[in-house]
Amino acid sequence: MLKRTTTALAAGLIAVATGGWADPDENQLVVNGDIEITTQAAAPAHLEGLSEIYSGWRFREVDTQATQMDDFDNPAFLAVDAAQEVWNTVEGEAGKSCATCHGDVMESMKGVRATYPKWNGEAEEVRTLAMQINACRTDNLDADAYGYTSGDMTAMEALISVASRGMPVDVAIDGPAQSMWEQGKEMYYTRYGQLELSCANCHEDNYGNYIRADHLSQGQINGFPVYRLKNTKLNASHDRFKGCIRDTRAETFKPGSPEFVALELYVASRGNGLSVEAPSVRN
Amino acid sequence: MATGVKPRVKVPGSASAGEVITIKTLISHQMESGQRKDSDGNKIPRSIINRFTCEFNGQSVLDMTLEPAISTNPYVEFQATVPETGEFKFTWYDDDGDVYEDSKPITVG
Question: How far is the alpha carbon of A72 from chain B, nearest alpha carbon, in Å?
Fold first, then answer.
């Protein structure tokens, strides 16, 4: 906490915004009056800079929060409905649909979103959920791969995430995934761009403060893919990373690149203990 | 003309007599205004939902005209008083003549 305060004071302008009202609120997230979502938890052991972790939901306006509390109000569910149809539709040369192998998505995909990105032993690489979906499409369905951050992809990720809603994020950081996790951590604390900002400068040192009109969250990705009010569509975490790095006035990495996969692995592990919230609603 | 049209309705399953309930409806529809042009400069023809009605046991609850300025996926939320057990019937009228229907029963106990 001391570290946060001193950084905020050093930043001068930002310090003006520090006050009780800037911190995460105390609201509780229950979706459909049924699924209890953990939006605050003790920070995982590997995370030294934070003692508590908060979902981005706790930093949003009350109206935005309410939109996520009922699936009927949550616009992401139009995409989820569409993906449910795709799930059951035969596509590609192999004459199979997702359902041919996996059956009911809410049963077979339960808990999947909570553990990704994760090491795939056969392919010997760390795979994000999007990479796994595309591998399944090209290898098993013999269909075309989706664009990494396309509407089809984010909709399918959202559908698979719904099956894990409310379950704690539990991304493995040891074993064969460790070197990639270290790479992601290195990136998180590296200052990028002309503004020389690292992820940590905003999302660890100054969460709860305002950066101009934006209320900074901890940058947790337990709610991705997220429906954003600003562009009225589902957004992939890699698109968000890209936007953030662009805002530091740097050349960004490409969505789906090994760099962003490493960063996703690390950022996801910072949220170990929060509930899977996707598809969430943010501004 | 319009593709991917899907009506969705949320009505409580039960209520007490005379209770005021909230009804939420949403229909996925492109709501093409007729004002836009495609990349060749040709006008994209108007294609919208132009009327939405709600009836309860044959009695009109709501009858609204929708105009081209209403955006994609029109969402209509309103309140209704439920006097007895019955059925809400919802109807959307498309410019191309299609009619989409949905209904929800409600029990007064």
Answer: 7
For chain A, how many residues are written?
283
Asked whether this complex has an ipTM greater than 0.85, the answer is no
Contact B73 A78 (CB under 8 A): yes
pLDDT digits (tens, 9 = 90+) for B41-97: 999 999 999 999 999 999 999 999 999 999 888 999 999 999 999 999 999 999 999
Give chain A positions within 8 Å (CB) of B28: 78, 81
A81 contacts in chain B (CB < 8 Å): 6, 28
Closest CA to A258 of A192, A169, A177: A177
Are residues A142 and A95 in contact, defined by beta-carbon separation less than 8 angstroms?
A: no
**Cross-chain Cβ contact B73/A73 below 8 Å:** no
pTM of the model as a whole? 0.85
Residues in contact with A30: Cβ distance below 8 Å, sequence separation at least 6, in sequence order: A36, A37, A69
